[in-house]
Design goal:
The chain has 6 helices and 3 strands. The chain has 122 residues and is an alpha+beta fold.
Length: 122
């Protein structure tokens, strides 16, 4: 899939987030990257042979103290190549992008991987 079509899927996934939830997301950039770097894989605790589909870079809302201000935007990376590797067709890519965006937004709100899996967003 070319980058512009993939970008449309990410925008579509963001547009599907309930408005009341999306209005609580501030100062976050969502970017599309081809694949994670070694540093990003290490930060996520992803070892060899495992794929990283997305990554939240930032301080979750639940960990922010009263002095949290004047910071650069948090970032959510969506990795196109790994997502395409786990999907068979464009419909699966669309669904995986949706799940990955929701998963990473969950991390922004301070939800850990275990709880995201329990909620079906793992």
């Amino acid at each position: 899939m070319d980058r512009s079509d993939f970008r449309k899927l990410v925008r579509e996934a963001v547009a599907l987030i309930p408005r009341d939830l999306l209005e609580r997301v501030h100062n976050v950039d969502i970017v599309i990257e081809t694949r994670p770097t070694a540093r990003e894989r290490k930060a996520a605790g992803i070892g060899p042979g495992r794929l990283l589909l997305g990554l939240y870079h930032g301080i979750p809302l639940t960990a922010r103290g009263e002095y949290y201000n004047l910071v650069l935007p948090d970032k959510i990376s969506i990795y196109q190549e790994p997502i395409e590797m786990v999907c068979q067709d464009d419909d699966e890519i669309r669904e995986q992008v949706r799940k990955t965006v929701l998963h990473e937004i969950g991390h922004y709100f301070g939800i850990d991987d275990q709880r995201l899996h329990e909620l079906g967003m793992g």
